[in-house]
Amino acid sequence: MPEFDFEKLEVYQKGLSFVKEVYRVTSTFPKAEQFGITGQFRRAAMSVPLNIAEGVGRDSFAERKCFYYIARGSVYECVPILSMANQLSLIKDDVHRELLDDCHRLARMLNGLIASIK
Predict the structure, then answer these.
(1) What confidence tens digit (pLDDT) does each residue in 88-107 have?
(2) CA–CA dist 111, 69 (Å, integer)
């Protein structure tokens, strides 16, 4: 089965793992939050690998960079969502720290990807 170029990127693979973890964690959130914090968190997390993939598929470096910036913005969006989920006691402190560490790693990786485009 042929691979697409973006599937080989470590940051893309890390983004997929992050989405999987966000889905696992949010599956315990109250049903009343399905269209609130749960949906917003899942959409923001999913946006990371989706925008990496779309960026790789673009022809110009400027377009690629734009989609990588959007992916990084989605990582940043997850940070206050994590804080709110922790403050609302939807996630425990250790889960909050682990996912926040994932966000930091993803942001650094995306910064590297953005910097690699000249």
Answers:
(1) 999 999 999 999 999 999 99
(2) 9
